[in-house]
Automatic annotation (TrEMBL):
Membrane-spanning parts: none
Any Pfam family hit: SPG48
Lineage start: Eukaryota, Viridiplantae, Streptophyta, Klebsormidiophyceae, Klebsormidiales
Listed name of the protein: AP-5 complex subunit zeta-1
Annotated organism of origin: Klebsormidium nitens
Record-linked InterPro entries: AP5Z1_ARM, ARM-type_fold, TPR_AP5Z1_C
Domain AP-5 complex subunit zeta-1 ARM repeats positions: 126-247
Residue intervals of the AP-5 complex subunit zeta-1 C-terminal TPR domain: 261-603
Length: 614
């Protein structure tokens, strides 16, 4: 397709030479680059054929690779390459005088190879992006220091000019990405450190444009393709700015963004980011909820003013501050609870400072999230619920492959604590719990001494008895590991005794609750409402508890007599105990009465414990 306004023969080249970045020139340049992308054959009489033939020299690697049908005039020559560089540099130079650089295109061209304006955006800006990309590729292909030196200064000035614009134009990231690519590829040739430029891109551009899907996609693909170079920079920028990337992924709702972010996981892990990244992935659905909440608030001036006031006070909702009065808009019910605002503010941060969010610890925050998600979830939220589990699975696999017990210990504690603070969706919680259990069991298998180190969160999980399905399933996995690996080995007497006592108490409390229920049924008395009575412990958990007590007593002999008494009480409670629990108690009691058999079954010591003891 040709431009909307006719251009006489050679006008585009005249405009370039004269330094006139007019709409006619923009449309002509857009026609040139669109034809190159579409690999269309252009007639010799076309008004843009001369310029197209020269610029084609810079794009010839694409044309030849695709088996173009273009005729002899398209063959690359040194003259074409030189003309291409000159024209592209003129486009860069004219951008400083063009009023069009205030509105860069944020959408792809309409149709396939269409030369129409980009949804009303000036075509010259798309030509500027293409010119920068062409210059970078020509320098990469030539490996010429002279060519890089010639191009570097104009591109550096263009970068500084663009990032100094306040406010940044929509779609600015589409221009900054090819500029950053040039600095990464050729910074060593011209002694240019790309690190400040990449950091500026994160802090001034992506922080504002992460919600633009085209900018987010260009940024994540750029980061994914250059992760090795970015990792080599002196400052770990990707581990620092991963929350911003996760915001782009959550808001974008695009499989390409998901794939690009997952490919970045190896370089996102670092000393100050491994734990925070786990929590951020688990909280991805809540983050999307926060972004949607902020988007709605942005359309309401009063709500936005309240959010800005809360953010200024710190903590998004410090209602104890004397500045917040009962009539203040932040106290209005439609602005949600202060705890929810605090949680949303923590999750929606742009940089990782190594500090884990603490707002989930508030019961009010969890209840507010539960209230917020009533009704049908949005497409973005559904996408986040589906994306977070595979991302978490890839993260766990990577941690297990690359980390050691120095990471497993704090991460294990965080995993155990996080089960009680998950987004309220049953399918999502089940998937996350299954992945977390896989990590814990694999970590304990490799390093059984982790068990006594994680004694506190383990005790908090099983005492008081868990009530929710997720906490119960986690308790089953932890209690099984306690018994299987003898709470870290025969040398961990104190930790083993403390966990044994918690398991013993769990059994006794369960027996008491079962006896009370049985007595009520026998007497025909009316039971109190479910909310007023303690829930019965899961029979599956109790069976695992009895087995773990037996295994602990077999290795830690000082616990043997107490274990026999405890299990015997369950075995004598046939009328009140669950049938499965009663049978398991009888089996384990019989084994404990035959020490030789019990030792043969339960005295295997994991290799890691043997190595530690030696």
């Amino acid at each position: 397709m040709g431009p909307s306004a006719p251009i006489v023969q050679g006008e585009a080249e005249i405009l370039l030479a004269a330094g006139d970045a007019s709409p006619s020139l923009g449309l002509a340049l857009q026609a040139v680059f669109s034809a190159l992308h579409a690999r269309d054959e252009v007639a010799a009489g076309d008004s843009n054929s001369s310029l197209l033939a020269r610029v084609a020299g810079g794009r010839m690697w694409q044309i030849l690779a695709a088996g173009s049908i273009l005729d002899e005039q398209w063959r690359v020559t040194p003259d074409n390459l030189e003309q291409t560089i000159s024209y592209c540099l003129k486009i860069v130079s004219q951008s400083s005088r063009s009023s069009y650089t205030t509105s860069l295109p944020s959408s792809p061209p309409a149709g396939n190879g269409s030369t129409t304006a980009f949804q009303g955006e000036p075509a010259f800006d798309r030509a500027l992006i293409e010119a920068v990309s062409t210059l970078g590729r020509l320098c990469w292909e030539a490996r010429s220091g002279d060519r890089v030196s010639r191009v570097a200064s104009p591109l550096s000035k263009l970068f500084q000019r663009v990032v100094a614009t306040n406010p940044l134009s929509p779609g600015t990231g589409l221009l900054l990405v090819p500029l950053l690519q040039f600095f990464l590829d050729h910074g060593d040739v011209v002694m240019y450190d790309p690190e400040p430029a990449v950091q500026t891109f994160f802090k001034t551009c992506l922080v504002r444009e992460y919600s633009d899907k085209q900018v987010a996609k260009a940024a994540l693909l750029f980061l994914s393709e250059n992760k090795a170079k970015l990792k080599a920079l002196s400052a770990p920028l990707l581990p620092r700015f991963f929350p911003l990337l996760l915001k782009a992924v959550g808001w974008g709702n695009d499989p390409e963004l998901d794939k690009a972010f997952q490919g970045l996981l190896p370089v996102l892990l670092g000393p100050n980011s491994t734990l925070a990244l786990f929590r951020a992935i688990v909280d991805l659905p809540t983050l999307v909820l926060a972004l949607e909440h902020a988007d709605r608030a942005a359309k309401d001036p009063e709500k936005m003013a309240a959010l800005m006031e809360a953010a200024f006070m710190g903590g998004m909702g410090d209602v104890s501050s004397p500045r917040v009065t009962p009539q203040s808009p932040i106290r209005r019910p439609e602005l949600r609870s202060a705890a929810l605002e605090a949680l949303f503010a923590e999750l929606a941060r742009d940089e990782n400072d190594g500090v884990l969010p603490k707002a989930w610890a508030s019961l009010e925050a969890a209840a507010a999230v539960q209230k917020e998600v009533r009704g049908s979830p949005s497409p973005r939220l559904l996408h986040a619920l589906q994306l977070a589990p595979p991302l978490l699975d890839a993260y766990i696999t990577l941690v297990l492959e690359t980390s050691d017990e120095s990471v497993f210990t704090p991460l294990g504690a965080l995993v155990i604590q996080s089960v009680s603070a998950l987004f309220p969706n049953e399918a999502f919680q089940a998937k996350v719990l299954r992945i977390c259990s896989r990590f814990l069991l694999a970590a304990f298998q490799r390093h059984p001494p982790l068990l006594p180190l994680l004694k506190k969160p383990i005790l908090q999980t099983i005492s008081p008895p868990p009530t929710s399905p997720g906490q119960t399933e986690l308790a089953v996995q932890l209690v099984w590991a306690v018994g299987e690996y003898h709470m870290g080995g025969s040398g961990e007497h104190v930790a083993a005794r403390q966990v044994f006592e918690a398991l013993e108490l769990l059994l006794y409390e369960s027996l008491a609750a079962s006896s009370a229920v049985h007595a009520e049924k026998a007497e025909g008395t009316r039971r109190p409402p479910a909310s007023d009575r303690p829930p019965l412990t899961s029979p599956r958990l109790l069976c695992v508890v009895i087995t773990a007590i037996t295994k602990l007593a077999n290795v830690h002999r000082e616990l043997a007599s107490r274990a026999r008494v405890c299990v015997a009480k369950v075995a004598r409670s046939r009328q009140t105990a669950d049938a499965h629990v009663w049978r398991k108690a009888c089996e384990c009691l019989g084994l404990m009465q035959e020490p030789a058999v019990c030792a043969a079954l339960f005295s295997h010591v994991p290799q890691a414990v043997v190595s530690r003891a030696s």
